[in-house]
UniProtKB/TrEMBL annotation:
Pfam families: Multi_Drug_Res. GO terms for cellular component: plasma membrane. This is Guanidinium exporter. The chain crosses the membrane at residues 33-50, 57-79, 85-102. InterPro entries: EmrE-like, Small_drug/metabolite_transptr, Small_multidrug_res. It comes from Lampropedia cohaerens. Signal peptide: none annotated. Belongs to the drug/metabolite transporter (DMT) superfamily. Small multidrug resistance (SMR) (TC 2.A.7.1) family. Gdx/SugE subfamily. It comes from the Bacteria.
Length: 104
């Protein structure tokens, strides 16, 4: 169950990072509220996952999911560049997440 909580925490990290971008420095109410609520949920689920997963594993996977998800959101919705170097870096993060999962 810890891995499920961790996956959901990572998905909420993508939500809050994206909402934070749309909040324009917390000057827009709705995206600001979404950011804060998603942050709280993400941290709560991460804490639940950490009850049985090692700190390093849980934190690395959580940040990796968030980083990859924010990267994809940036490319698909915000016009961020999808250069070969950036895609290679994202692939390395994904490989790290997979390796961490396989090692636990």
């Amino acid at each position: 169950m810890a891995w499920t909580w961790l996956l959901l925490a990572g998905l909420l990290e993508i939500v809050w990072a994206s909402a934070m971008k749309y909040s324009h420095g917390f000057t827009r109410l709705t995206p600001s509220v979404v950011t804060i609520v998603a942050m709280f949920g993400s941290f709560a689920l991460l804490a639940a996952a950490m009850r049985s997963l090692p700190l390093g594993t849980a934190y690395m996977v959580w940040t990796g999911i968030g980083a990859l998800g924010a990267f994809v959101v940036g490319i698909l919705f915000l016009g961020d560049a999808a250069t070969p170097q950036r895609l290679a870096a994202a692939a390395l993060i994904l490989a790290g997440i997979v390796l961490m999962k396989l090692s636990s």
